[in-house]
Amino acid sequence: MPRQAIHTDSAPKAIGTYSQAARHGGTVYLSGQIPLSPKTGEIVDGDIAAQITQVFRNLAAVAQAAGGSLADVVKLNVYLIDLANFPVVSDVMPEFFSEPYPARAVVGVAALPKGANVEIDAVIELA
């Protein structure tokens, strides 16, 4: 089965040479999302919790375009400019995920595109 690119207008447009997601068989690799508004292409206003919430909304839109949902996420990679925000990720996640939670890594980074404070990518498995 060839790789299939996934695109939706309900999530921010790719800001580089990549697809919002790529599907191969039943596995979908969601590209990293930063807290951009799909309408404006700008980082949303608000604190880090609001930004993490927007990232999960963007990921949910891409997952839906691929025929799935965040319930299908098996792995999350979270990139934070400030690891002091690690607990906020855990506080926001139950708004979008339920047990059993996906596997997750949280990595501190020096910089992210557009000056974002958070970026998250995911892998979903579709039946």
What does this structure look like?
- The chain has 127 residues and is an alpha+beta fold.
- The protein has a single domain (4-125), classed as 60s Ribosomal Protein L30, Chain: A.
- It contains two helices and six strands.
- The chain has helices at 48-65, 86-92, and strands at residues 4-6, 21-24, 27-33, 73-80, 103-108, 118-125.
- Strand 4 (73-80), helix 2 and strand 5 (103-108) form a beta-alpha-beta unit.
- Helix 1 (48-65) crosses helix 2 (86-92).
- The longest helix is centred in the middle third of the chain and has 18 residues, at 48-65.
- The radius of gyration is 14 Å and the shape is globular.
- The two termini are 15 Å apart.
Jot down its keywords:
6 strands, single chain, alpha+beta, 28% strand, 60s Ribosomal Protein L30, Chain: A, 6-stranded mixed sheet
Write the layout of secondary structure elements.
Elements: E1 4-6, E2 21-24, E3 27-33, H1 48-65, E4 73-80, H2 86-92, E5 103-108, E6 118-125
Parallel strand pairs: 4-5
Antiparallel strand pairs: 1-2, 2-3, 3-6, 4-6
Helix pairs in contact: 1-2
H/E series? EEEHEHEE
Strand content: 25-35%
What's the overall geometry? globular
Q: Supply the number of helical segments.
A: 2
CATH T-level fold name = 60s Ribosomal Protein L30, Chain: A
Strand order, largest beta sheet: 1-2-3-6-4-5
User: Rounded to an integer, what's the Rg over CA atoms?
Assistant: 14 Å
Main sheet: strands, sense, barrel: 6 strands, mixed
CATH top-level class: Alpha Beta
Q: How many domain regions?
A: 1
* Amount of helix: 10-25%
Q: Give me the secondary-structure category.
A: alpha+beta
Give the low-pLDDT segments.
none
Whole-Å distance between the termini?
15 Å
Q: Which superfamily, in CATH terms, is the homologous superfamily?
A: RutC-like
Mean pLDDT: 97
* Assigned CATH architecture: 2-Layer Sandwich
**Total number of β-strand segments?**
6
